[in-house]
Amino acid sequence: MAAPPAGPGIVWQTPANPPEPHDYIFRNGRRYVRPYYFEFISHVKNRWAGKTIVDLFTDEFKGRSREYYVRAVKCGRLQVDEQMVHADYIVKSSQKISHFVHRHEPPVLAGDISILQNEDDVVTICKPASVPELNIQYNALKVVRDRDVSGSVLRFSEVHPCGQYRKNTVVGILQAEHGLTPLFPVHRLDRLVSGLLIFAKNANRAESFRQQIEAGLLQKEYVAKVVGVFPDGEQTVDANVNFNAREGRSTVEISDGAGKGPSGKQALTRFQRICTDGTHSIVLCKPVTGRTHQIRVHLKHTGYPIANDELYLSGEFCPRSTKGTYACTAGSPSDPDSCAADHGSKNAEADNGFDIDPMCTNCPNLAPVGYNGDEEGLWLHCVRYTGPDWSYECPYPDWAFLDSVSTKKMRS
After folding, report:
1. Distance of CA 244 to CAs 9, 223, 291, Å?
2. CA 166 – CA 279 distance, rounded (Å)
3. Tally of CA atoms within 13 A in the half-sphere of 344 that contains its CB
C-alpha cells in the first residue's frame, strides 16, 4: 500500500479535519485560508472506466494541464486504490482515486460573522456578503432546490464541503472561531447575499423547520438597493423564472401569446418601496416562491435592478466558468521536473506565511489563480424569517440607510 507523498512538515488533511482559528490570514480587507495539503477522494464512475488515469483527469478536471497530471502520477500525487500507478494505467469502475494537492481557497470579505441568537437548539447569524454558507455535495436521498436565497430545504444526510470552498465558509468559520458544530442549515443564501441565516443544532429541530418550509408556513423578507425611483405601493411580480446552470443566471419567461405557456418555474415576489433619494430606492422584497436568483431577476424585470448587480444590470455577462472567483485557470508548475518529494521553501514561508509547494499550480500566490480581487457584496440582504410560532431578524446593512427618513421607516 502506497503512503501519501511525504515531506518535511507535510500533514495531509481530509474532510475529517476541522477548521482551526490559525487557518485564516487577514489581508487588505479579505479573509484568506492558509494553503494546506489536502487529499481529494473520488470514485471512478462508469463513464470514466476504460480511460487512462491521465486522460481521465485531463478530460474531467480541466483546471490543470495534462503535463501536471503526468507529473502528479509520477510523484504519487495521484493514486488509485492507495497505490502508485503509471501514467498509462487504465481505471476501472468504482476504484478509489486520491488526488493530493496543495489547496488554495478563494478569499472572502473579512467581515465578522455576528451571532444574533444562540438558543438551545437554534443559532442565528448575520452572514457577510461573499462568504458561502457552505459548499456542499448532496447525496441522492432528497434535496428540495426550489427555494434558493429564500430558503432551500435540505434533507440532512451526507452533507460535506467540496468544490473551491471548505474552510472559508460560514459553517467552517463558526466551527473554527466559536466551536459551533454540528450545524444544520435551515435555509440558504447566495454567496454574494448577506443577512440572516438560521441553523438548527440537531436533526430533530432541522426536520421541524423543514416541514414548516415545505408546508409554506414561512414568510421571508429581504431588502435591496435598486436603481431609480421604485414605484410606491405594493408591486407584485408573477413571472416564471428559468435558471441556466451553464451560464449561472436566470431569466424571466413570459407567454409568447400563441397558446404556448412560458418555460421555467412559477415564481411570485411582492415588493414595497421603503424610501428613495431620487437616484436609488430601498425596496422590501417578499418572495413567496424561491427560485434561483428570483429576487434579482424579478427586480430586473420591473426595470429596477439591484444597483450593483453586474449580472443583471445589463445583457452582458460572463459565464461562471470564466469569471473571477469561479475560474480555475491554473497553469503548470514552473519547474517541469518538480515532484512531490520537493517541498516548501522556508524563505517563502517567512514572506507569505505558508509553504511554497513546487507542484502547486497556485503558489506562490495566496489566492488561487483566476481570483478577481475586486469582488464586492450584492446589495441584497435577508432581514427576517417568520414561522408559525417564531421569528428571527437581522439588522439592516449600512447601505440600506439612504437618509433619516429611511432610518425611521425601517426601524418602525
Report:
1. 44, 25, 12
2. 39
3. 23
Q: How many other C-beta atoms are found inside a 10 Å radius of the C-beta of residue 175?
A: 18
61 contact partners, CB below 8 Å, separation of at least 6:
none
Active site residues: 190
Whole-angstrom Cα distance, residue 270 to residue 287?
Answer: 6
pLDDT digits (tens, 9 = 90+) for 328-378: 333 344 444 445 444 444 444 445 678 899 899 999 999 998 876 677 899
Q: Please, which residues bridge with residue 154 across strands? A: 143
* 322: phi then psi, degrees, rounded to nearest 5: -130, 10
Residue 381: pLDDT over 50? yes
Distance CA(245)–CA(251), nearest Å, equals 11
Query: Can you tell me the distance from the alpha carbon of 400 to that of 381, in angstroms, rounded to the nearest whole number?
Result: 9
Residue 405 CA, distance from chain mean position:
35
> Where do runs of H (alpha helix) occur along 168-302?
170-178, 203-214, 294-302
Dist CA 84 CA 334 (whole Å): 24
Mean pLDDT of 171-175: 95
Mean pLDDT in residue range 73-98: 96
Within 273-390, residue ranges assigned H as helices are 294-302, 310-313, 346-352
Q: Under a CB-based contact definition with an 8 Å cutoff, are residues 229 and 281 in contact?
A: yes
CA 186 from chain center: how many Å?
16
Identity of residue 62:
K
Can you read off the three cell numbers belonging to residue 364? 506562490
DSSP 3-state percent helix, strand, coil across the chain (nearest 5) = 20, 30, 50
Identify the residue with better confidence: 15 or 381.
381
Give the mean model confidence (pLDDT) for residues 63-90: 95
The answer to whether 111 and 185 are in contact (CB under 8 A) is: no
Helix (H) or strand (E) holding 55: helix 53-60
CA-wise closest residue to 376 among 131, 165, 59, 77: 131
Cell numbers that stand for 264 in this block: 421555467
Strand partners, 330: none
Q: What is the grid cell recorded at 250? A: 436566470
